[in-house]
């Protein structure tokens, strides 16, 4: 029996590879395409915002990193390197600010493991925007099906799903893009199983975004190795010392959920996909929105408040319970800080996680009167996992509260408008690109499926004669960006 004993008598990885290789353009609905483009656009924007961050710049200064020859661009620079190094650096930048999209089923960030790796290899091999989008959709499908098979045990155990499951997503997406057959795709997935890593203990540090850069690089590496004949155990997922039993444990996963409803409908269409309106951990967003609702609807100010109680769903609080953040990164994982900031400023922006913003006297006072605890009415095993209630006690004795039971970022029935997408993108991109490149880049991303060669996109991500990033001289108004909305796509079966 050849072909690695017929892929170990049809292993889980081989069955998954069959799904991946069998995916076709005809399965992509208009809704799926639009959601994919929106997530892709948003990811490029937050990557540009993350290029100047310390975690990215330290990588660039590290001997041996980005020194390999190659044609793949480090965004916001004129530096080109290997696809592997570009995936590592751009991938780290994409999560540096924790401003990227996320998914409640995934328990993490579904786009960042994929976008940097796909753009790096697509630029090197001159793939089209349509091909990249199809591969992205395959990567998301793979990540989310794995998540359905291993959660919530995988998440609660302490693994960072963005990294552990994202490695498989990147391997699947790149394998599809470079047209590996089923046997080689199986090998790519099997190799990825030994490259998957990332623990939540490193949340709130530079290592969290490094998880993303590394998982994208590792998924890409797995596919490239498989392309060249590297082998691995095709039964690595179900083996008694394989991924599912080691990372989860016997009896804590359901492998058949890997295949149930594959692409029917596509995971990218789900209302569980959420874009971030605020540049901090997505688990804090329901509480931020409830405080903003109080501010807008009740007209309260920080001076009116005697005490604040934040009651998120328990799963949202475990990694965001940081009462007194000491660094900007810790502030991103402090539900107390972001709720206080929402009360003080009526919004939460990138500047709130820079310099000494978390030590402002007004913020420190609000942190002293803010308490957080798990919501007693939101069970860990509830169907809805993204709820929060915020209660404020005013100095005049009144108690006001707002509650939401499920708010997964901006998506589903509450999508970001084109204006909101542009405002976020411009704010992010201006940290790395000159103003004249931002609007053309946005418009190119809006019609990514029409790009014949991905270099038509990446040339708008290049800044001449700079290794790092630069600020734009002035913001670009949405009105000046375009006279009309981007043309409606016709890429529908």
TrEMBL record:
SUPFAM superfamilies tied to this protein: 2-methylcitrate dehydratase PrpD
MmgE/PrpD N-terminal domain span: 15-253
Location of region: Disordered: 472-493
Domain MmgE/PrpD C-terminal: 278-437
Transmembrane segments: none
Organism domain of life: Bacteria
Record GO terms (molecular function): lyase activity
One Pfam family matching this protein: MmgE_PrpD_C
Gene3D superfamilies per the UniProt record, alphabetical: 2-methylcitrate dehydratase PrpD
Database matches in InterPro entries: MmgE/PrpD_sf, MmgE/PrpD_sf_1, MmgE/PrpD_sf_2, MmgE_PrpD, MmgE_PrpD_C, MmgE_PrpD_N
Family: Belongs to the PrpD family.
Protein name: 2-methylcitrate dehydratase
Organism whose genome encodes this protein: Microvirga vignae
